[in-house]
């Protein structure tokens, strides 16, 4: 399918990375990620970055998480809350607590949104970053 130029979408890439993760084939996921990164450099979605960080977090590879996060920042892609927490945990595991705090302060806002009685409500976030 890829050979004929069909199906080369970010959704297909995400599904393939998930399949590699479920099959415990991290090395193949890593080589596929490098292909995506070099081929589609400026158009990689936040979802793909999050998927790759999740794969590395699942397999306890904090140095790789930090590398993917560096690429993410370089391309100007803002991480979601779960990805931010995984990156902060990776910095903590590596022993760089000051960078952990910088990431949390930069990407986790003071407010978050929850759903309460069918409505979206804005609430102040508690500052308990160490509750991983």
From TrEMBL:
Coiled-coil intervals: none
Keywords: Repeat
Superkingdom classification of source: Eukaryota
Keyword check for Repeat: yes
Gene3D superfamilies named in the record: Tetratricopeptide repeat domain
InterPro entries recorded: EMB1417-like, PPR_rpt, TPR-like_helical_dom_sf
PROSITE patterns assigned to the protein according to its UniProt record, in alphabetical order: PPR
PANTHER family: OS01G0757700 PROTEIN, OS07G0545900 PROTEIN
Name of protein: Tetratricopeptide-like helical domain superfamily
Organism expressing this protein natively: Helianthus annuus (Common sunflower)
């Amino acid at each position: 399918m890829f050979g004929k130029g069909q199906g080369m979408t970010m959704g297909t890439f995400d599904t393939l990375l998930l399949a590699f993760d479920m099959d415990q084939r991290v090395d193949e996921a890593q080589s596929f990620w490098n292909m995506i990164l070099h081929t589609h450099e400026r158009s990689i979605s936040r979802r793909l970055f999050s998927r790759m960080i999740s794969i590395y977090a699942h397999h306890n590879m904090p140095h790789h998480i930090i590398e993917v996060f560096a690429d993410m920042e370089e391309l100007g892609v803002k991480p979601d809350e779960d990805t931010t927490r995984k990156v902060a945990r990776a910095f903590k595991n590596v022993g760089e607590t000051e960078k952990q705090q910088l990431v949390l302060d930069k990407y986790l806002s003071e407010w978050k949104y929850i759903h309460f009685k069918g409505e979206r409500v804005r609430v102040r976030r508690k500052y308990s970053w160490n509750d991983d």
